[in-house]
Amino acid sequence: MSQMKEKMDVLQGTLALMVLKTLEVLGPLHGYAIARRIEQISGDLLSVNQGTLYPVLLKLEQEGSIASEWGSSENNRKARFYRLTRGGRKQLQAEFRGWEQTAAIMGRFFVLKEEDLK
Amino acid sequence: MRPLRRFLKRLSSWARTQQDEERLRAEIEEHLAMQTAENLRSGLSPTEARRQAVLKFGGVEAMKEDYRAQKGLPFLETLAQDTRHTLRRLRKAPAFTITTVLTLALGIGATTSIFTLVHAVLLKSLPVANPNELYRLGKETRCCYQGGYSQEKEFSLVSYDLYKYLRDNTKGFAELAAFPAFEPLFGVRRAGNSEAAQSYPGEFVSGNYFTMFGIQAYAGRTLTAQDDRPGAPPAAVMSYRLWQQQYGSDPSVIGSVFNLDDKPFTVVGITPPSFFGEALRNTPPDFFLPLNAEPFVEVDADLNKYDTHWLDLIGRIQPGAKPASIEAEMRVELKQWLRSHWGEMSANDRAKFPKQTLYLSPGGAGITSMREQYEHWLQILMMVSGFALLIVCANVANLMLVRGMERRRQVSLSMALGAQASRVVRQPLTESILLSLFGGAAGLAVAFAGTRLILHFAFPSFAGFASVPISASPSMPVLLFAFVTSLLTGVVFGIAPAWMATRVDPIEALRGVSRSSERTGSVPRKTLVVFQAALSLVLLSAAGLLTAALHNLENQDFGFEQDRRIVATMNPRLAGYRTDQLSLLYRRIHDSIASVPGVSSVALCQYAPLSGGAWGSGVWVDGQPPPGPTDDYFAWWDRVTAGYFAVIGNPIIRGRGISEEDTSASRNVAVINEAFARKFFKDEDPIGKHFGREPGASRQFEVVGVAKDSRYVAHNLDKPIGAFFFLPEAQAEYARSNQGSLFLHDIVIFTGPGPGLSTARVREAMASVDPNMPIISIRTLREQVAGQFSQQRLIARLTSFFGVLSLVLASIGLYGVTAYNAGLRVGEIGVRMALGADRGDIVALVLRGALMLIVLGLLIGLPLTFAAGKVLGSQLYGMNTYNPVVTSVAVLALGLSAMLASLIPAFRASLISPLDALRVE
């Protein structure tokens, strides 16, 4: 049970960051478009469970990182558009730096060879 | 910040659930539509395109669940759901719901109404600014005068001179105020008004009294130090109550002159409505006068006597000051002041000087004489009502358990289908808490009515006077108490059924419930019945003890006759009489009333027996050494007119009573009671002996008679009657001091046999003497005596009420358990009967089970009853706390009602036809 939840949290954390980044780069998008972009970039992470995106969107909105409103899509359908708020931008920057650091550290670790530690 | 924002968002979105569900549905639909469109473009058939889209989206319901968990507050939602569900279930079982709510209302209401009193009398602070800054002099409260320069245990009353000394030298007090330890009645008449004077209580207070309490005038102004100077124009502050009720909030009252005991005072202001003085009292004061006006009103003023201690002190300490260091400072000041009066001190006072000390205690509640008076019986009532509430809980728990049994099939089914245990427990718990909250709400109504009733009996008020400042309507703390009590009650009686609910084997659902549940659940229910029986026994025997004690009190030998005696109360002081007019006035009252038809004889006295007042004095016996510092030389005394002993029916054992031959010209005589003779004359013959009321005046009175001991003073009913002496009114020293004792208050009337006396005729007779002098009250001596025991009667009746209530509830509980168990044993009974058991055997079988429980309850309850007797202690007025008669009656009452409660189901069980019973199997 707890293991499952942990996995979920990691996924959600990553997903949240991807959503924020996508919105930063591409501007306001509806849920389907966000799912498509993330799918394109991350491969199959979302190919099975596109639905999991919506709880993440909701959480981000509650935290004030993104805002949403009804609009019309490219083929004139009613769709809910999400956009990055100022708070979200800040959050993205902070988290991005965090990721960069983590990634850098992890990167250095993985290129380590046995003699480096001697 | 972010979690908070999230919480608020969740809270608001929880409120907009419907709308959001709609939004989510729309979004999902949109998403699927777009995905389907895309799939179509890549060449899939329409059906397949849709199917793939849905597959890709993932479990919609799981996602929705996840989404909802993110969005709202699942806990609140479940709670709301449980509540709705429970309400529906309760509506479907109206009989159960109403019974439970009513039982709970009774229990919670009774406890709450007792708590209302506990809160008002024992817990509440005065309605003044920052009561926690107030400190008062003395650990215990004292009434009313202390003479000389020493006080037992602690110096708690002070003279005006000592007050000024303490006030001016104690730096730790921002204000230190003084007021007398008693509350005189004033005859009040608005100047220029020709109506008869009305009597109202008032008190003298130091000029800083209102400043010290931080009390602003409701209208006009309060008293100030300027008003409290010798020679200042007499000013008075009136209570809001009197202003509103008697003068219709007339603004012209402020600034107008009122005569108090025929002395003109200008009313300068009105106190705020909530203010009732410095003490909770049956009759709050209606006038506040400056201390320095005391010599202006009282003929025999105490203000300037250094050695008459009659003032209580309350002070507001400086911010940050330590009470302990103020106390130390004041102890030194007390010693200094005493030393400065060394020359006037008696030998006894000097001997006691090293021990003289004082104490400060928190004064936020004011002078707590009422607290001390009522504390013990309020504690008893609180305990009794708490017990009753526990019995109520047990009963409701029993009902709930039965309900739980009926639901077993449903519960085991939900468990089998995977319901969480916590969710299963929550349901019965929600139900019990909801029920007890309803019970609590209904209980508030019961509490309001109950409190009013108790206030009426416990704090008798007098017509025209303010009543005790306790409100029956629930205050915030009382509401909180009722709420918390209801909640706790709900948990207490709900916890067992809830716990039982989880102990269901899911497999049961698949079997017949009636078979497998035979034994489960009967143990907790039986325990509850045993518990109820034990508590009922305790309550019943407590009620029995209190009732027996009351019976003893009421039927004791009072030493005087109650039949055909009527007591009329008056106050000549209120009509402005001077002491030199009194002798003639008394003669005229006597003659006027004696001429009323039906009156056999009349006598006047300061105080009739058990009227609530009496004077005390020291006694110096002729021919005996003067009393030492530790000797008890105290006696009560009364002043009476000729023939008094015959009128009141108090037998004279030796010598003679007070008669017409005792005049101002003859030798001064006294009649003593037996206790006086024992205390001061030991085995000697008291007739012809002399004693006095002051040092050096031991030949003041000659003893001419000994009266049988009779009960005059009500506050020590558990003690033997104390020493008492009677002086003739005709020999009163009208020219000398102590004028207060010259005013006689009670007219005792001995009526002839036959129909009762018309009180109207008595009033007419009084009016013919002086239309301005009202009769304050007129009642039979029997009523007056009974009035002294109203508090004891109330507590005995309330405890009996709780006792009977608990007995009824315990019987219902036993009935329920017995009936239920008998129902479960139908099969067994059938087998037994088929095997040859007759009806008697079956009755015995069922009864045995029920009576076992009661016997167990009795065994547990009996030791507790002895403990209860100990707790009651002084409320029993000297009666033995172990009373075998009372205990056996309680046991018998419980046993009989238990028998009755279990016989019905036992007989019903024995009527089962064996064939039917076996068919159940």
Structure characterization notes:
The complex is a heterodimer of chains A (118) and B (921). Helix content of chain A is 62%, strand content 14%. Chain A is α+β, with helices and mostly antiparallel strands and 118 residues long. Chain A has one domain: Arc Repressor Mutant, subunit A. A 3-stranded antiparallel β-sheet of chain A has the order 1-3-2. In chain A, helix 1 packs across helix 3 and helix 1 packs across helix 4. Chain A starts with a helix and ends in an 8-residue tail after the last helix. Chain B folds into 4 domains: 71 residues, no CATH class; 234 residues, no CATH class; 314 residues, no CATH class; 201 residues, no CATH class. In chain B, the strands form 5 sheets. In chain B, strands 16, 17, 18, 19, 20, 21, 22 and 23 form an 8-stranded mixed β-sheet that branches. Chain B has a 6-stranded mixed beta barrel with strand order 4-5-10-7-9-8. The radius of gyration of chain B is 38 Å and the shape is globular.
Short description:
The complex is a heterodimer of chains A (118) and B (921). Chain A is of the alpha+beta class and 118 residues long.
Helical residue percent band of chain B: 40-55%
Note the main sheet of chain A.
Answer: 3 strands, antiparallel
Mean pLDDT of chain A: 77
How many domains is the backbone of chain A divided into? 1
Task: Tally the beta strands of chain B.
Answer: 25
Distance between the termini of chain B: 66 Å
Give the low-confidence spans of chain A. Answer: 1-10
Fraction in helix of chain A: 55-70%
Determine the CATH superfamily of chain A.
Winged helix-like DNA-binding domain superfamily/Winged helix DNA-binding domain
Q: Tell me about the biggest sheet of chain B? A: 8 strands, mixed
Treating each run of at least 4 consecutive H or I residues as one helix, how many helices of chain A? Answer: 4
Task: Quickly give the CATH architecture of chain A.
Answer: Orthogonal Bundle
Q: Report strand order across the widest sheet of chain A.
A: 1-3-2
State Rg of chain A: 17 Å
CATH top level label of chain A: Mainly Alpha
Number of domains of chain B: 4
Rounded to an integer, what's the Rg of chain B over CA atoms? 38 Å
Strand content of chain A: 5-15%
**Strand and helix order of chain A:** HEHHEEH
Instruction: Tell me, briefly, the overall form of chain A.
Output: elongated
Measured between the Cα atoms of the first and last residue of chain A, the distance is 41 Å
